[in-house]
Specification:
There is one protein chain. 30% of the residues lie in helices and 29% in strands. With 106 residues, it is α+β, with helices and mostly antiparallel strands.
């Protein structure tokens, strides 16, 4: 049985922490929060396509890791974000296991 995306995410965060790489979970989505007069209003947080893990390397480069199960697929917004980040010189990894982080030299 393959690992779920949640399991991959937890493993990647633990691995990066052990390696001394500053990394943290980034949530994106929407929540209904009380607004004026107590009426619920939608509030978006994060940016569409933002990877699961953001951080920075010891050399100052930004780090972005999108965690997927073995059958998980990237959404178009995720592909676009990761491609832009890579062109800008960021470290970008699509991780289906911690081995993918290791292959990326992390």
């Amino acid at each position: 049985m393959s690992a779920t995306e949640s399991q991959v995410l937890k493993a990647c965060l633990a691995y990066l922490n052990v390696r001394g790489i500053e990394a943290f979970r980034m949530n994106t989505g929407m929540a209904m929060l009380p607004g004026r007069g107590g009426k619920l209003q939608p509030v978006r947080f994060g940016k569409k396509g933002l990877p699961d893990i953001c951080g920075y390397m010891n050399d100052g480069r930004a780090l972005f890791v999108e965690c997927k199960s073995t059958i998980g697929r990237l959404r178009p917004e995720q592909v676009a974000f990761l491609e832009r980040a890579e062109r800008a010189g960021c470290v970008v990894v699509v991780a289906r296991s911690i081995e993918d982080l290791q292959k990326a030299g992390l």
